[in-house]
UniProtKB/TrEMBL annotation:
SUPFAM superfamilies: PRTase-like. The gene is apt. It catalyses: AMP + diphosphate = 5-phospho-alpha-D-ribose 1-diphosphate + adenine. Homodimer. This is Adenine phosphoribosyltransferase. It comes from Streptomyces chattanoogensis.
């Protein structure tokens, strides 16, 4: 789903381009102006909570760190549980881990092994889909936990990095929802 034009315009107007951050050649999409605008942040939360309901998710997974900022209010608004997927080494309990490649570097994410159960329907929420590596790794964690993927929802898809193609196999037919694609 692409957001209605007015919502898309509002959200896009609050995302800033920062060239050559965090390294030369990367155009960083800074969402902090959006987060600082209560009308825009509320509209974003509502749109993502609608997707949660539409895809009948009963858990949302937020991807550290910016995904947490979006997924936590969505979980509250939608009345579903929030599950953090963190960078390796940050969770205190037994974890499942998955290595992945970023647009700028490599990393590993982890989720508590008992955070999801078979039968859970999970919507993954993040701010940006770039190469798709982070979201793809999260889908693998969700399936390894025995849960069902309801979909992936992002604020902004960087279409030129082909993350959608990279996610296709892991989604197994579940939707990838981007409110904005550039
Ligand atoms: O589609 P990909 O190529 O995987 O890139 C997208 C990911 O990169 C960013 O997170 P980052 O790892 O920079 O961490 P942060 O949220 O802690 O800033 C962004 O918030 C996504 O999680
Ligand atoms: N260009 C970008 N801007 C913001 N977040 C990102 N995550 C990966 N690539 C990004």
């Amino acid at each position: 789903m692409t957001a209605p034009a007015a919502l898309r315009e509002l959200l896009l107007s609050r995302i800033t381009d920062v060239p050559d951050y965090p390294q030369p050649g990367v155009m960083f999409k800074d969402i902090t102006p959006l987060l600082a605008d209560p009308a825009a942040f509320t509209a974003l939360t509502d749109a993502l909570a609608d997707l949660c309901a539409r895809h009948r998710a009963d858990k949302v997974v937020g991807l550290e760190a910016r995904g947490f900022i979006l997924a936590a209010p969505v979980a509250v608004r939608a009345g579903v549980g929030f599950v953090p997927v963190r960078k390796a080494g940050k969770l205190p309990g037994a974890t499942l881990g998955q290595a992945y490649e970023l647009e700028y570097g490599t990393a590993e994410i982890e989720m508590h092994a008992d955070a999801l159960a078979p039968g859970d329907r999970v919507l993954v929420i993040d701010d940006v889909l770039a190469t798709g590596g982070t979201a793809d790794a999260s889908l693998q964690l969700i399936r390894r936990a025995g849960a069902e993927v309801a979909g992936v929802a992002v604020l902004l898809e960087l279409g030129f990095l082909d993350g959608r193609q990279r996610l296709e196999q892991g989604l197994k037919g579940a939707p990838l929802e981007a409110l904005i694609t550039v």
